[in-house]
Amino acid sequence: MYKLMLVLLAVTALSGCTTTEIDEFRQGTTSLNVGESIVILGRRQNNNYETEGNFVECVANVVGGGNDGITVVPEQEFLDAMFPFFEPRTAPMRTTHLKQLMEIDQAKERLAQYGIEYIVWLDGLTQRSQQAGTISCTIGPGGGGCFGFGTWQDDSNFEAEVWDLDTLESVGSISTDAVGQSYMPALVVPIPLIARVEANACSGLGNQLKQFIAGKG
Length: 217
Hints:
By secondary structure, the protein is an alpha/beta fold. The protein has helices at about 1-15, 55-65, 75-80, 95-100, 105-115, 195-215, and strands at about 20-25, 35-40, 70-75, 115-140, 145-165, 170-190. It starts with a helix and ends with a helix.
């Protein structure tokens, strides 16, 4: 019991630690004028997974927040207004497909109504690995409790590709990889000590994307 308490104290001091790496690749100039906006969309064409809507919303909030915030059209509002052009089966996967889409007057007019200058595609997911340890819980006449220790690693890997609606070309991409170790010590009551991996990935990617679109990346 004493040893478990020492482990709990040590883990508490180390918990919440994450490592975040951000890479930027630019292949075109970017800037926004007054009245222009962007939209951030999650890739959902892959049958194995789809980019989480909560993560897309988180990045949009970071990009649109602060004194230097950019006007971001909400994803669902955009998808509803552009139906059916950005549904999973019909959304442009490449800039060549975007050029074909812009030849459709109805799609071009709807995009112009929102003043959208850039489309940002988010692609990625968070994966869990390296799970170890066990926790057991018992209930008896005198009460109950849980004892043990568990740990796992989360890895959030996301990429944002930016499409320019003036040139109909990709102007660059930003990728982020956030890794963190989480712990679950249990001394009567389980105490989750969760690394904020996805939150760190969102913050890092959102702030870098804001600078990139403003032409400062």
